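Newbie here. four chains, one complex. Structure please?
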Amino acid sequence: MALSRTSRENDPNGAAERETFLSGLLSHLMDQGRRLVSRRPAAGPAWSLAATGQPLPDLCRALLDRTGETAQVLLATEILARWGAADKRQKLDLLRALARDFGPSPERLERAIEAYQSEATPLAMHELHASAEPARQEVLRRLNLAPMGTVSLVRMREELLRHLKDEPDLRVLDADFVHLFASWFNRGFLVLRRVDWTTPASVLEKIIRYEAVHEIRGWSDLRRRLDPFDRRCFAFFHPQLADDPIIFVEVALTSEIPVAIRDLINDAPRDEAGDQINTAVFYSISNCHRGLQGISFGASLIRQVVEALKRELPSLETFVTLSPVPGFAAWLARSTATSALSAEATQALAHLDEADWFDRPEIASRLRPVLMELAARYLVVEKSPDGLPADPVARFHLGNGARLERLNFLADLSPKGVRQAHGLMVNYLYDLRELDRNYERFATAGAVAASRAVSSMVAPASRRRSGRAKAN
Amino acid sequence: MALSRTSRENDPNGAAERETFLSGLLSHLMDQGRRLVSRRPAAGPAWSLAATGQPLPDLCRALLDRTGETAQVLLATEILARWGAADKRQKLDLLRALARDFGPSPERLERAIEAYQSEATPLAMHELHASAEPARQEVLRRLNLAPMGTVSLVRMREELLRHLKDEPDLRVLDADFVHLFASWFNRGFLVLRRVDWTTPASVLEKIIRYEAVHEIRGWSDLRRRLDPFDRRCFAFFHPQLADDPIIFVEVALTSEIPVAIRDLINDAPRDEAGDQINTAVFYSISNCHRGLQGISFGASLIRQVVEALKRELPSLETFVTLSPVPGFAAWLARSTATSALSAEATQALAHLDEADWFDRPEIASRLRPVLMELAARYLVVEKSPDGLPADPVARFHLGNGARLERLNFLADLSPKGVRQAHGLMVNYLYDLRELDRNYERFATAGAVAASRAVSSMVAPASRRRSGRAKAN
Amino acid sequence: MALSRTSRENDPNGAAERETFLSGLLSHLMDQGRRLVSRRPAAGPAWSLAATGQPLPDLCRALLDRTGETAQVLLATEILARWGAADKRQKLDLLRALARDFGPSPERLERAIEAYQSEATPLAMHELHASAEPARQEVLRRLNLAPMGTVSLVRMREELLRHLKDEPDLRVLDADFVHLFASWFNRGFLVLRRVDWTTPASVLEKIIRYEAVHEIRGWSDLRRRLDPFDRRCFAFFHPQLADDPIIFVEVALTSEIPVAIRDLINDAPRDEAGDQINTAVFYSISNCHRGLQGISFGASLIRQVVEALKRELPSLETFVTLSPVPGFAAWLARSTATSALSAEATQALAHLDEADWFDRPEIASRLRPVLMELAARYLVVEKSPDGLPADPVARFHLGNGARLERLNFLADLSPKGVRQAHGLMVNYLYDLRELDRNYERFATAGAVAASRAVSSMVAPASRRRSGRAKAN
Amino acid sequence: MALSRTSRENDPNGAAERETFLSGLLSHLMDQGRRLVSRRPAAGPAWSLAATGQPLPDLCRALLDRTGETAQVLLATEILARWGAADKRQKLDLLRALARDFGPSPERLERAIEAYQSEATPLAMHELHASAEPARQEVLRRLNLAPMGTVSLVRMREELLRHLKDEPDLRVLDADFVHLFASWFNRGFLVLRRVDWTTPASVLEKIIRYEAVHEIRGWSDLRRRLDPFDRRCFAFFHPQLADDPIIFVEVALTSEIPVAIRDLINDAPRDEAGDQINTAVFYSISNCHRGLQGISFGASLIRQVVEALKRELPSLETFVTLSPVPGFAAWLARSTATSALSAEATQALAHLDEADWFDRPEIASRLRPVLMELAARYLVVEKSPDGLPADPVARFHLGNGARLERLNFLADLSPKGVRQAHGLMVNYLYDLRELDRNYERFATAGAVAASRAVSSMVAPASRRRSGRAKAN
């Protein structure tokens, strides 16, 4: 064996040693913030801030004028405290003011445009860029200096998102949030941690609360998902959000690609010495903060979890999801695809209106081919106006380079599963060797990577459709 | 006592508890990067990168085109490795190319200007800002994704700074570095750690290397500065720079404001039970990375150290520096201030050319009032073209809100001390109650905060000068 | 301030620094054990142990013969695994065998006695001591080398204690357990940790399970005891028992000495900014392992918790318990003390048989003086045959040097509280300034430290009793 | 792959997670002790101890009388402080007093003997054992409760060992030390940590100081031993000795079994990408505390290091020492073995008196076979009076189950190496598959495990010797 210096990295002892100095850094980082807050009341006159009854936008203006570092931190803290206590109306007023009144300085911008137009030097372009930066970006940066500033700003954007549809003028503010969050939540600052039964309760209760796919019903249910030898959960954390996870994924280790969710989240005891484990199933991925919408973490998360699992269990061969198809039923309801179906198929579909169709084997077996083919078409062919897959979950996994591997009939018979997707679930396969290739083809040509089995279901449908097209 | 929730923050036990979950985060963060590097060779064909003989600028262009996350990380890693191995010429070529060829897209920018000029909506301003962003910022952001990317970019700017004077066209690139570094080295990500004899040797050797004010001569000397009961050293660390400190300060705990550096860094044993300690002396502050020049950490460092020391030793009353006056001798040599001196004073100054003047008490005592007054004038009155104090150390401390407290004659008789400042040193006082006020007056009116003793030395000089002015 | 070297110990930063190297030690310690276990199956032929069908006592004999370290560890592991799987009968057989057949060697002992009797040299005494050591102590020491050995031995003694009453011959084995446990669970190895909502769930579920005084009903109830700003919980942990606490205490922070348990464990929201906090109330102390009975941790725990709280909240003035009086009702039922009561008192006592006497104010007010006086007598005067206070809780707190401060009527109206003590609870006061004095007087003269209020209740009763005594 | 629960142990992420709660325990443990000390002066009258001018033995007597826990800790602290300040004479007085005056109680012992002789019940034996325990054991146990008590007792035994030869009466005290240390320094409490360049300087300076085999000349030399990619150093630490290592081993990773020490500790740069690494060489093992003499750690250390290295570098195949033969030259000087040598051999040996014989190839080549054969005989055949190998290093490694693999001529030409062993060094091979078998044969039959190469050198010598024996 040729020993390179880096092989040391695989040494658990060595690693532990080396971590010792660093391991305290992060906590200090967080404690610094906390202490600032907690010490404030005791800091005395020199640090105090005159109680201000001014409206929030005026305070933000003042924040831009403050030059002293401490002064900025204190005013930012005050503003965020006031924001926290403000009512809906006051909050909206601030958001509007930021979007409207905290743009760039028109004079400086005019001058910069003029200079650029007289000669397009790099320096002129630089000044143009600088002078076009809206003042609200600096406001947000300074608010971020307050203790717990980042969390507060994530919540602030959450509020903003509620109004975005009704008030398109707020979009510029949202763009600034996204710009800054992308930098602050840089992948380099995200930390992957396993979440298990030894994780602090304060983190675990957030897992219960944030689980968005398959509801966790209390601590016992949580334990069933974390503690068994064949379960894993991983989350991304961020220094500024402390013990509040950003996104997490639940994983089951199995001996084959699962066909139904009940196999993964039921209570049945499992035989440890039993089946051969070779498959990791990602069966639930939950984003924790609406305010971080559009800042993508999922791809990194899955990649890093795949790598962590590979390290732990080298014999894992297959990494696959068991995913919902949240848009299928709605699409089917409004789609014209059904108009081309055979009478028999149409008849079968009519049974979907009956509450217990899935409990009646004969009906289910008639529905099966029809639903499967329609779902394949929905997932592979159907696109949003932006050219991406219509189904949001498909968009996410295909955008990560995964492959649509298999459709599973009667896979999720919970009310939600039946309502959203007539019980269908999907496996997306993460094959490390083809992720990048798939991704490139998806990103450049919109190509959906699908297994032969899925593709073959689509082909006839498309053919038929093109047949129809010809017929027209 | 009314117990607020935050009082829990002062609970060392509680704090320790809470740290447990977080304490591993940072090391994970760093290890993620390291692992990426170390695993690369083993990652196999899917992750490999075709060996590229292309010039670095072309690779940077390719980096902008890559869409897959892994692809970006690998290419960034490759570029930085190639940069590390490049010669002076190749490096300069890349820097020039970045400054010249990676600006904004002219077409998009033109369109944005046009749109803005037709109607100055917030959205138009936003697009103007976005379209004026030079492409090199995105290049730097993507390079930062590589393992050890941040360190490499700090070194890259170090290289850039060497050429800045000769090639002003590179300044736009430098501005981009500063913009990005300001965000990445955000105060919120800096961690204050005490450095002492229990600190890892790998950190300590860097302290020895980086000490910029009073050279550390090996491990025994280092120990004398770190280990005694009345010595402290604090440094800022950053997650992405691991165990490489960013800036550090050495502190001596004393019973009075020291008048000479030899009292602090000599070898004499000290009686622990002896004097009453009430003063913390910051006698050496060293920035560790030239590549971070202009990103200011010193003010935060001193504030946080003052707070940490206050917490540890509540009876500390005075926080003061013992600082060099690096520009004094050079200023004196070229200043016209001396022309107005009395004959006696001029005669005394002539002795400065003699090597051992400070060893001759009679001469020293004649020089003392002359030098002190001139130094007071240099520090309080003399300004750079930018209106800030001429002396760089004065500029730093006064800019932090400190007060020029005392001048010390024959305070540093090392060759460097005599050469730079004729042996003078200065105490700047950090009085928490007046830091912000001083800072505001300094920032807005350029006012130098000085003790009465120092001010009174300046007054006559100024008066004399204004006298002269009148006489003209 | 004269700065001694030790003042550094109060420096939270400094402390954190110093901890970094040590902080990994313990986990390594535990992991070593775990790894040994987990690796065993894979360790291959050289480490394997021939499956042995021999009875456990024979295996213990073999364990004494083994000389190789690894051989000992493997056999010890095997024995403990077999013990874990054994039935009641087999377990008892082993305990009996250890007590009966694993004594000292009679021959060696005879020789040692002879030598000692011929000349009582120190060496002869040493040999006498050594030769009288029962072989079972070495058996237990070697079993302790197995991974999780200590836990297994704690469980083994738990089993032993079940038989002790019926089989007095087992007492010598119990004495050996106590001797060894006292050394292994040396106070120096116990670690005080705060338990709160950031503690791992795996620890918290044990707190729920082990709570012995006031039952915790699930995770929400637990959170109410741990998370509010005025609640604390501290536990002792031991390296060899990992995340299994040994003993823990629950604390409420209040503004006065509480008179009833419902004030501490009810659900009512509490106003953080409200009352002045100056009192710490220890309202529940639970030993976690029956197998450690007789190895006392409570005194150390309370002392250390008092110190930790003092550090966190310097304004805490009063440290007090709110304790049950578990033996009161039983004592009252069989006591002759009641025979000397007035008719009125006797009549009042008769109401205790009615289920809801405490809900009837008129009756309660008649019972109050009678019960209080009897309880004072029970606690202050009544002794076990061993001369210690009859009440086990009183014995514990008085033995720690605490003072019996106050009796509280209608303080615990839970079924258990009414059944055991007719609803009475007691405050024991921990006054650091008098703990040692109280302890010495308690240990040497059996003196019960009691407040004037309590003492004055006892006096008349005693007088009356001595009155009766005279009359006889 | 059948996944057992224990496979989780191999998960670095999982492991890190689980450590988080535990990782603070140990530091708390140590800090508890430190705090006790540091707080003492401030603890006020209730905790204070009347300054005592009494002799140390009287204080030890008083320590046995104290019943209060705090009282004991304070008095123990006082005694150890007084011991630390005592002169040689006073120390010896205390040691003598402990050995002579702190035995068992004769009365109680007599009664116990009587009872035992009347009927040898288990209880009687137990009482005999208990009553024969010398009071000094309890003294030592209580001294151990003082902060830093364990360290102080290790130093106390160091002192004791200096007098043991001259005062055999002290031996009983030494036996008590050994008995207690064996329990306190139980393998279960030892923690293996890698020592490298990221280890705290406070630990590293101890490594420099304690290195007993091949002197470390300052920090640069230390770095050469710790930092290169093919070097390792591991140490055992103990909670009560904090950052003071107990024993450590230095390891070089090589591609073959080394023949000379200069190959391992010279300065030459090494090519990382170069040779294939398959061998771990233990080239220096140092015990750090004389006071722990006789408490064996080395066997555990080597075993655990072998396991740690195997985990880090699975391709390591050979674990071997490069060891000195410290007793060889002295044995040779006094041995009669040489009398049977051929004239030629005797002549060759005479050259050993010349300072530079090893620099003269012709002489060296003549000496080689003679010295090698004699050394083989010394190591394989020669025994101490106790039947163990005469050479202390051989005794250690053979006692661990290692095999004498190879003798190396001209392997250590340092003055010490030449003086002690005429430049010879030895490889002991640790083959995990035969360690236990070798150990058993060594322990039971005194058999020395040796490679065929070494055995074959001994055979003729023995034969010759037995030849001689017959001739007599």
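Moderator note: The radius of gyration of chain A is 27 Å. Chain A touches chain C through 20 residues (CB under 8 Å). Thread marked as resolved.
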